[in-house]
User: What shape does this take?
Amino acid sequence: MPEERLSRRTFLKSSSWAGMGALAGACAAGRPSAGKPVDPSRILNHNAKMHYRRLGKTDLVLSEIGLGGHWKAPWRAQAQGWWWGKFVDDPNPVVPEEVAQYRREVVSAGLEAGVNHLDVTGLAEAMAFGAALAGRRDKMIVAADDYKKCPRHPQYCNVASQIENVEGCLKALGSDYLDIWRPQAKMDGTNTDADIEVMVETFERLKKAGKVRHLGVSSHTSRWLQHVIEKYPQFEMVIFPCTAKTKSKTEPPVGDNVEILNSRENGYVDISLFDVAQKHDVGVITIKPFFGGSLFASHNQVKTGAWGAGNKLENDLARLTLQSILSKEAVTAVIPGVSTVYEAENAVLASYTRPLPVTAADKAWLQVQTEQRWADLPAEYEWLRQWEYV
Assistant: This one.
C-alpha cells in the first residue's frame, strides 16, 4: 500500500502529466453547459489538471468532483456510522480534534487537487468542515442546509424557521455567508407550492441581507424537481441521486438503453429531468454515486466506510463510476462522500483522466460490477431504483 499511495500522490503532483491537461483542451479550463470554455481566471482554486463546469445560471464554475458532506470515521475500526457527529448534541458543542484533523487533511488534499466546492447537510458536518476551512473559507464554494430543521419537517415550513436553519449553518461553519443554500425537500416529493414559496421568500430575505448568494434544492423525487424548475425560476441548481446505472429517459431506446423501451408505459417516455434542467439553465449536482458505499465489496467488511485503500479494483470502480456520471452533459459535478485523503485523491482522478479513452473492457467490467451491486442494494438504499431512469 505505501508504494501505491506514493505513486498516486506522485501522479497528482507530477508535471509529467501536464500533457494530459493539453489533451483536454478547452475542457480543462472548464466546460459550461452551453459548451463554451470558461476563462480559467474565473475559476476558484483552479488546477490545470482538474476539469470544471458552469453551474447553470448561478454562473459559478465548479470542479467536476466536489466534497460531499457524508463520511464515516476511518480512524476507529470499532466505531461505526455517524458516531463521530454526536458532539453536536452537547450543550456547548466543540469539534473533537480527531474529527477536525481528518477533515483538514481531506480538505487540504481536495484543495491541492483543484476541488473548489463542498456540500453539507447537517450541523455536525458544517462544524467539522468549518474547522477544516479555518483561514481558507474563500477557497471553497460552500452549499449547506441542516437536515434537522429543513423543509422536510412540516413544523419548520415557515420563513422564520428557515432563516434560523440558515443562520445555524452559518454559525456552525464559522462563516458569514453561504454560496448556496440548498434546502432538503421531502424525500417523497410531497412539499407543496406553499412550502416552495417559503424557501423562495427565505432566500430572497437572506440574499438581501448578504447571507446567501444562490438558491438550490435537493430531493429524491424527480417529478417534484421538474415542477420546481419549471415553475420557480429562483432555483438556480438542484441536487439529486445519480449512479452508473442511471440513464436519461429520453435517450434513444437502442443498444445499452433498450431497457428504456421495455419500461415504457402505454408507449410514452417522460421528459428527462436532465433535459428540463438544461432547458432552464439550472445546474445539476449529483449524489450517491457509490450507493451509499455499498458499491464496494469492502463496505460490508470494513465498517469504517473507508474504501479503496490499497485496493486497485475498488479504486478503478470508483473512478469509472464517477466518469460514467460525468459523461452526462447536464451534470455539473459529483459530490461523493470521502472519508480519507486516499479516497479524495482517487476521486479527483476521475476528472483528471476523463479525456482519455475508456476501453470496451473497462466499460463492460463497470457494467458487471454495477449490476451485481444494484441487484443487492441494502434495504436503506432500495429507493435508488427510482433513479435508474431520470
